[in-house]
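Hi V.,

You were right to ask for the full record rather than a summary. Here it is.
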Amino acid sequence: MSSFSKVFGAKARIYLKTNLDIQQLSDVLANGLMLPGINLEADEYPPHEILGSCEALGFELWLEKSTEIEGLSYLLKIETEDCLNESFNDQMHDLSPWLARYVSKICEIDSFIPYAEDQKGLLFTKGQTSEIDISELTE
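Predicted structure:
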C-alpha cells in the first residue's frame, strides 16, 4: 500500500491570553494569519455569544470566548474541511503546537495548549515555549 493511499486531515485547538475584545482579536488574527477576514456573528444558542468564523485554503476556523481555563479569554480552533471520515478514523494531524507558536510570534498573542492528563500545558510567548502549571496563567 502506498503511503499516499491514506488521507489525513488536520486540526488545532489553542487558547489565547489577551485583553483584546473579539473584534480587535479577529482583526489581529486575520492580519497575522493572512485571512480574508473573520466573520463575527451571534451564536444561535443561548447565551448568544459572538463567534468568529472563516474559511480559507480548505480549513475552517472558529474563534470564541472561553471560560474553560481561568486567565485564557478565547479559544481558536481550526480543522480541514470535508474530513469527517478522517476525524472518525483518527487520521487527523494535530497542528496545535505549530499554530500556538505562530500566533504567539506573528500576532504577538500568548497562546496555550493544555495537556489532557494534568494541570499543566505549553505556553507560547513571542515564539518561545515554556511548560507551566495552569494556575500560573492567572498570576
